[in-house]
Design goal:
The structure holds 2 protein chains of 2 kinds. Chain A is an alpha/beta fold. Chain A is about 25% helix and about 20% strand. β14 of chain A pairs antiparallel with β4 of chain B, so a sheet runs across the interface.
Chain lengths: ~550, ~150
């Protein structure tokens, strides 16, 4: 239940922001710049949230960097592209327009008032580049940031162990890795991707004198007799901390993917292997529900087909990783029956949507993970798969065998089916076709090489040894939460804005619905609605609390 | 090449130091992040441990081949990564500095290879000396403890 006003506040501010990811930090900066006194709370000892752990790329139509690069864009094209993808299933069509109209303003503001800078990565088109309205240049790459600029906060900014300090363009996420450059940047404390984005925003907050309290999770909202949110109860060092918020509270503390009960209650696919920091347990969602917030987009997540190298551990869990090799050419993905079920090279958001397909005849979910990526020595010799480098011996945790049948037996998949599946794949691969699932036809399958093709994505699986790695039900974070309006303000079950309560990022209803527009499809809306929430909360009238 | 050397003195005779150090089973659990080890022969053993690199923990398996065994003053060894692409060497030296006092020096050198080598070595640069110091200190403390009284 929400808490009533305490006899006395331990702390007071105009705006209290929960979280330290891209949405939270943007909201805090904007609220401050409206003249508000801002206090930022972070549950963990490390800051930066899901954003710091990510590629740090926002997807921003009509942004200044693409304009400077001579790339034209328009509101109409951006909306055409988005609407084709959302298919009218977004929770509030108006918010798509709000997003397109404000995302570039948010980037302009941060460019003009903070150290945050972006570049348009060369050779990095839209994930659905052949759709009407698509435009390269909307996915922005944070420029490398000197972490020494934030002093003692530098080591506290989360680091994804699998992301080297390279930009998207330099190959940090898509191959072509220069390990000497990585070593040099590590020596000099130069960071990229999500850490660069968070580092620059933290610098902006420090420059403004905004206080950040770590290891101080928000627990409950405080409401007055009129149902207005006037503060929150946090915990610090095992004791309650009552924090008053004269103008408002911004919930931006991430999704609920690490909360098993909430995952089972809401998601259409039961995610087992989140790729975000383990503190994302739906704290903001629970607090918002307690004050009667309407919810939106609750069954959705930023899906990802996760892989693991079991020798890496992060905060008490085996690290869930991006993987690699799924686009082939010498690989397929099969379900527990040893059968293919999807074009393996579709986007990481789309491919896992096949996991929760129900077979109404067999009365089962045949593609429920773990599913298996099957590949041969040809792929192993030229592609980095999880942490396995080409040319190096596969580690002992990777199942391998000299025959497909033997491999099937090792991984507990129907051997007859797997043999038949591989034989059919090989037969078609020799003709350069995939009549079953159309591999080599999606742009994303060869994103930086001009789009999918039989040459890039279809090849036989015939050179032993054969390998298998499991793919799990993963997510970059959930994207359902309290319903918000065009100001990032939370709306009640009765459809009225809740005074003093705002939400953004994965802690809020995802405005894109089931769609991940392209690289930056999560952070773009997160920062934009953080920007809008920051302006609205920071400029709201000060209330008696 | 990431390496680390740590020297300390213990109020214990060199013979007692050697008695403890020469029995690998006694001090193996003191290796930071120790999981298990297996003695293959007088000269060879395999080890698993979980290295804490700060931003991530990494389980590593390696093989130790003893290259010199000079009682009671010197042991040298080579190490080879079994789970990952690295190699290295190390040593333990003991020097009597009086009847019941010994100077111990531990040395460890690990070099990651392959395409990822430069990046991994950058990470190991602080990890290896820290590990060498922690292991030397833990062994010294244990030697003092078991020889107390």
């Amino acid at each position: 239940m929400a808490t009533r006003r305490p006899a006395a506040w331990d702390r007071e501010a105009d705006v209290v922001v929960m979280g330290t990811g891209g949405a939270a930090l943007t909201a805090a900066i904007l609220a401050h710049d409206q003249g508000a006194k801002v206090l930022v709370l972070e549950k963990a000892a490390m800051i930066g949230g899901t954003t710091a752990f990510s590629g740090g790329v926002p997807w921003i139509p009509m942004n200044r960097y693409m304009r400077e690069a001579g790339i034209e864009d328009s509101r109409e094209d951006a909306l055409t592209y988005l609407r084709r993808l959302t298919g009218g299933k977004e929770p509030d069509p108006h918010l798509l327009e709000v997003y397109v109209d404000n995302a570039h303003k948010m980037i302009d503001y941060l460019h003009e008032h903070t150290p945050l800078r972006f570049a348009v990565p060369k050779n990095y088109p839209e994930y659905y580049n052949d759709l009407p309205g698509a435009r390269a240049g909307r996915s922005l790459d944070p420029v490398p940031f000197d972490l020494n600029q934030v002093g003692e906060w530098g080591p506290k900014i989360r680091q994804n162990p699998t992301f080297p300090p390279l930009t998207l363009e330099e190959g940090g996420a898509v191959g072509g890795i220069d390990f000497a450059k990585i070593a040099e940047r590590m020596e000099k404390n130069i960071v990229t991707m999500g850490r660069a984005l968070v580092g620059a925003l933290v610098k902006a907050l420090l420059d403004r004198g905004v206080e950040i309290l770590t290891e101080t999770p928000g627990k409950e909202l405080v409401v007055n007799d009129a149902g207005e949110v006037i503060g929150l109860v946090a915990e610090q060092g095992g004791r309650k901390l009552y924090i008053g918020a004269r103008k408002g509270v911004v919930l931006a503390s991430g999704g609920f993917e690490w909360n098993r009960e909430l995952v089972r209650a809401f998601l259409k696919g039961h995610v087992t292997h989140p790729m975000s920091p383990p503190g994302n347990e739906g704290d903001a969602l629970i607090m918002a529900m307690e004050v009667g917030a309407a919810l939106g987009n609750m069954s959705e997540a930023w899906w990802y087909p996760t892989m693991q190298d079991p020798t890496f551990e992060y905060e008490g869990h085996i690290l869930n990783q991006l993987g690699g090799g799924r686009m082939g050419p010498n690989s397929i993905v099969v379900n527990r029956h040893g059968k293919r079920f999807v074009n393996e090279g579709t986007t990481y958001m789309d491919m896992p949507k096949s996991f929760y397909v129900y077979d109404p005849v067999a009365l089962e979910w045949p593609n429920e993970p773990p599913v298996w990526m099957i590949f041969d020595q040809q792929l192993k010799d030229r592609t980095m798969i999880i942490t396995m480098m080409p040319g190096e011996e596969a580690p002992e945790w990777v199942p391998r065998a000299d025959t497909i049948r033997e491999l099937a037996e090792k991984i507990g998949v129907n051997a007859d089916n797997l043999e038949a599946t591989v034989n059919r794949w090989n037969e078609n691969a020799r003709k350069g076709v995939d009549p079953d699932f159309h591999r080599g036809t999606m742009y994303f399958e060869n994103l930086t090489g001009g789009g999918g093709s039989p040459e890039a994505n279809i090849g036989t699986i015939e050179k032993p040894p054969f390998y298998a790695v499991p793919i799990y039900y993963g997510t970059l974070g959930t994207c359902g939460g309290p319903r918000i309006n065009e100001n990032g303000q939370v709306v009640s079950l009765r459809g009225k804005p809740i005074s003093g309560l705002y939400a953004a990022g994965n802690a809020a209803m995802g405005v894109m619905g089931q769609t991940y527009a392209s690289a930056g499809g999560t952070i773009g809306p997160a920062m934009t609605f953080g920007y809008l929430a920051g302006i609205a909360a920071g400029s709201a009238p000060s209330r008696e609390i | 090449m990431p390496d680390g050397k740590h020297t300390l003195e213990v109020p214990v005779s060199i013979d007692k130091v050697w008695t403890y150090v020469s029995d690998i089973d006694k001090w193996a659990p003191l290796v930071p992040g120790y999981i298990e080890h297996q003695i293959i022969s007088d000269r060879q053993s395999t080890w698993s441990f979980k290295g804490d690199l700060g931003f991530v923990k990494k389980t590593v398996k390696l093989r130790i081949d003893i290259t010199e065994w000079t009682e009671p003053t010197r042991v040298t060894f080579d190490l080879t990564g079994l789970s990952d692409n690295f190699a290295g060497n190390g040593s333990f030296e003991a020097e009597a500095i009086g009847g019941d006092r010994t100077r111990m020096t531990g040395y460890l050198n690990i070099n990651a290879k392959g395409a990822m080598g430069p990046m991994v070595n950058s990470i190991l640069k602080s990890f290896v000396p820290k590990t060498a110091e922690e292991l030397s200190t833990a062994i010294a403390d244990k030697i003092v403890e078991v020889n107390r009284g």
